[in-house]
Write a structure and sequence with these properties.
Layout: H1 12-24, H2 26-36, E1 43-47, H3 53-62, E2 67-72, H4 75-88, E3 93-97, E4 109-115, H5 124-130, E5 135-147, E6 153-154, H6 158-173, H7 184-190, E7 194-201, E8 204-205, H8 212-222, H9 224-230, H10 235-238, H11 240-254, E9 257-259, E10 262-269
Parallel strand pairs: 1-2, 1-4, 2-3, 4-5
Antiparallel strand pairs: 5-10, 6-9, 7-10, 8-9
Helix pairs in contact: 1-8, 2-3, 6-9, 8-11
Domain Methyltransferase: 39-147
GO molecular function: methyltransferase activity
Protein name: Class I SAM-dependent methyltransferase
Length: 271
């Protein structure tokens, strides 16, 4: 979702990165959406739908008797999402321009979902509470987001540890919370939801994973300006042009298993 608080941008490179990221975390996302209460036949609102990956994934869960409305305020991402939907031939997905903070539906939904949105919203509780009105009684809100506090390599690889600290500093400088998933039990409770639940899933990469270094450095690249503005590292120390190669080499040399942030699902029901 592109808002004044969204620091990662929405140019072509970032849209491609989002699609790569979506593929990597697709399996835990589906598990968490199903655990949170998505079922066939539901009418679902997807907040901050970006290039459409979550909407497309949810459309498979709800099936032909269900439907998905993706809400996104960035025109570039909306255009990409619509092109991809048409290419896939999906008939149960629509997209609409709108702001997740203020959107009010004409008719209530069975479920509202979002992924990697709440981390960018300092007013996350208010946004969750706002969307209770977009749910029918008994409807569910399911959010998926990151908890970066569990990122690590074993054995420890110094460069990977430093990259994690750079990302943390960049997100914090941009007033984003990369560990917001850990707060889900409190956020959903304070937003007035009932039957609140949470579950975190962790992906583990072997030392020779061919995607891992590119995935991590892709986030660094997208957050580059905020990382430097935070003062945690200089451009020369970061050396973005060689970072992916250096990181991959050091992980392989150490024979290290490493992780992405914990992928956390949080959910609650409108009483």
């Amino acid at each position: 979702m592109a808002t004044p608080d969204y620091v990662l941008g929405s140019d072509d490179a970032e849209i491609r990165r989002l699609q790569t990221q979506a593929a990597i975390i697709a399996e835990p996302t589906e598990l968490l959406f199903r655990r949170g209460g998505l079922t066939p036949g539901m009418r679902v609102l997807d907040l901050g739908s970006g290039p459409g990956d979550v909407s497309f994934q949810v459309s498979q869960i709800v099936g032909p008797d269900g439907s998905v409305l993706g809400l996104e305020r960035d025109p570039a991402q909306l255009a990409v999402a619509e092109q991809r939907r048409d290419a896939m031939g999906l008939t149960n997905v629509a997209f609409r321009s709108g702001d997740a903070r203020t959107f009010v539906a004409d008719e209530p939904f069975d479920a509202v979902v979002c992924r990697l949105l709440l981390m960018h919203l300092p007013d996350a509780v208010d946004v969750l509470a706002h969307h209770r009105r977009n749910l029918r009684p008994g409807g569910v809100f399911v959010a998926v987001d990151y908890d970066m506090s569990g990122v690590r390599a074993r054995p420890e690889v110094e460069l990977f540890t430093r990259v994690g600290s750079w990302l943390e500093a960049g997100f914090r400088h941009a007033q984003a919370d990369p560990s917001v998933g850990m707060l889900f039990p409190v956020l959903f409770r304070d937003a007035g939801f009932a039957d609140v639940g949470t579950l975190g899933l962790q992906l583990y990469w072997p030392p020779d994973n061919s995607e891992a270094a590119g995935y991590v450095v892709g986030v660094v690249r997208a957050l580059h300006d905020a990382i430097l503005a935070s003062g945690v590292v200089t451009a020369d120390e970061l050396d973005l042009d060689t970072l992916e190669q250096r990181l991959g080499e050091q992980i392989r040399a150490a024979g290290a298993v490493w992780t992405v942030p914990t992928i956390v699902g949080g959910w609650g029901r409108r009483a």
